[in-house]
Amino acid sequence: MSTIFECSGLTKKFGSKTALSDVDLKIERGQIVGLLGPNGSGKSTLIKLANELLTPTSGQILIGGKQPGIETKKIVSYLPERTYLNDWMRVQQIIEFFSDFYDNFKPEKAYDMLKRLNISPNDRLKTMSKGTKEKVQLILVMSREAELYFLDEPIGGVDPAARDYILETILSNYNENATVIISSHLISDIEKILDYVIFLNQSKVVLTSTVDDIRDAKGKSVDLLFREVFKC
Ligand SMILES: Nc1ncnc2c1ncn2[C@@H]1O[C@H](COP(=O)(O)OP(=O)(O)OP(=O)(O)O)[C@@H](O)[C@H]1O
Description:
By secondary structure, the protein is of the alpha/beta class. The protein has one domain (3-229): Rossmann fold (3-Layer(aba) Sandwich), CATH 3.40.50.300. The chain has 9 helices and 9 strands. The protein has helices at 43-50, 70-75, 91-101, 107-116, 130-142, 160-171, 187-190, 211-216, 222-229, and strands at 3-14, 17-28, 32-36, 58-63, 76-79, 148-152, 179-183, 196-201, 204-210. The chain has a 6-stranded mixed β-sheet, with helices on both faces. The chain has a 3-stranded antiparallel β-sheet with strand order 2-1-4, with helices on one face. β6, α6 and β7 form a beta-alpha-beta unit. α4 packs antiparallel against α5 (130-142). The longest helix has 13 residues, at 130-142. The relative contact order is 0.18. Bound molecules: adenosine-5'-triphosphate. Adenosine-5'-triphosphate binds next to β2 and α1. Adenosine-5'-triphosphate is lined by residues 14, 17, 19, 37, 39-45.
């Protein structure tokens, strides 16, 4: 295994507020990683720093051995917490746009996943429900053959019955050497697909573990451990 993402001494302050404090992490290739923590713990800040939407106050990030920049954007596919797509566009037009923009975007994958989730490529985003829009955005992000995927709260608006199916459909399409980092509050829904978890609390990493270790050594589900660690 080789490292796809690492950060050392990573700190982000907004004025007097510290959103991330001296975070050291190393994430290997070929894993699905849950970035978990209560509201305001720093999950989105970490993901935004990795995608250059923010710059660190101090510390360093390396993606595939390189600092975030043009080269890392080629290998990273990012689903932000808020939509950035023009919602008057039809899904088909967005797929054309992504095909032009990203060398590693595979339109056939996008059309296949849309079909499996019963979404018409002819529909405009603005006519879709919140959950369907989320599905479309996730499909677009996962249709790139990236080395690292960042999914910031990917299925919050999707109904519980559809979540498993979406996670399976989307993950069945991704290359097993790639790494997926998912931030989510829906731990019981996503934990079945996770290999590794990072717990953040109040801007710091409080636990990193393989999911197998949590289940075997601690005899707990990730959801139960999360509830214990973050009990109010
Ligand atoms: N642009 C900003 N200006 C000021 N403070 C910010 C900004 N962005 C984030 N913060 C603060 O940094 C901290 C971490 O925020 P972040 O959005 O990373 O948390 P999160 O773990 O993603 O939370 P949630 O689960 O609610 O999405 C919070 O206290 C938040 O208020």
